[in-house]
Structures are given as C-alpha cells and as structure tokens.
C-alpha cells in the first residue's frame, strides 16, 4: 500500500539525455539531509515528451538513477510502480517527474 510521500522531484531535461547526462541528473536528485531510505517503496514516474522511447527502458533507467543517488536501497525494494508517458505541445519543455512513497503492508 502506498504510504507517506518521502521524495518528489521534477527534472526539466530532455528524456533522451537520461543516459548521457547521468552525473548532472544525479546532482539534481540529491536527497534532503533528513531523508531515510525506505525498506520498501512505491515509485511514480511521469515522462512528458519523448513519446518515441520505450516505457520499460525509461523505468529501468530511473530506478538505476534512484539507486545510484542513494534514494532507494535497490530496485528489489520497489513494491509498486506507476509510470506514464504524456504528449506535450511544441511550446512546452520536455521533463520527467519522480515521486517516492513509503510502502506499508495492509490497509485499505
């Protein structure tokens, strides 16, 4: 069950640059000083623009970035993933969003 939101970030960068600008993106994903990695979590991703990319490949790249940024222990700790691609107009900036929530067992 999705619980408390513990991290949220929007990165205004072309999605194709995920692979090539990894170090720059890792700097944007710096965790807050009081951040505690969850044992289990839910991850929500939104990709705005970049409709030609495979969603499964984008998910794996983001999960790898979250591990490298020390925001999650390993992608095995992710219990729930919501990932969507959105078309944008020509005047909008391509970007992606990441949200991490604690995962709690039980509940409604």
Could you please describe the fold and organization of this structure?
By secondary structure, the protein is of the alpha+beta class. The protein has one domain (2-103): 60s Ribosomal Protein L30, Chain: A (2-Layer Sandwich), CATH 3.30.1330.70. It contains two helices and four strands, in the order βαβαββ. A four-stranded mixed beta sheet has the order 1-4-2-3, covered by helices on one side. Helix 2 links the parallel strand 2 (41-48) and strand 3 (78-86). The chain starts with a strand and ends in a 5-residue tail after the last strand. The mean pLDDT is 88.
List the helices and strands and how they pair.
Layout lengths: L1 E10 L10 H7 L12 E8 L6 H14 L9 E9 L8 E9 L5
Parallel strand pairs: 2-3
Antiparallel strand pairs: 1-4, 2-4
For the termini, the CA-CA separation is 8 Å
Strand portion: 25-35%
Topology order in helix (H) and strand (E) letters = EHEHEE
CATH architecture: 2-Layer Sandwich
- Give the CA-based shape: globular
Number of strands: 4
Helix count from the secondary structure assignment: 2
Indicate the low-confidence ranges by residue numbers. Answer: none
Largest sheet: 4 strands, mixed
Q: And the CATH topology? A: 60s Ribosomal Protein L30, Chain: A
Domains (count):
1
Rg result: 14 Å
């Amino acid at each position: 069950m999705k619980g408390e939101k513990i991290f949220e970030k929007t990165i205004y960068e072309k999605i194709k640059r995920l692979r090539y600008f990894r170090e720059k993106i890792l700097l944007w994903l710096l965790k807050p000083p009081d951040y505690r990695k969850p044992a289990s979590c839910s991850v929500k991703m939104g990709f705005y623009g970049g409709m030609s990319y495979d969603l499964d490949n984008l998910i794996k790249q983001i999960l790898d970035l979250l591990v490298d940024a020390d925001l999650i222990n390993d992608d095995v700790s992710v219990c729930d993933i919501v990932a969507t691609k959105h078309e944008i107009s020509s005047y909008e900036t391509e970007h992606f969003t990441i949200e991490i929530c604690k995962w709690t067992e039980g509940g409604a």
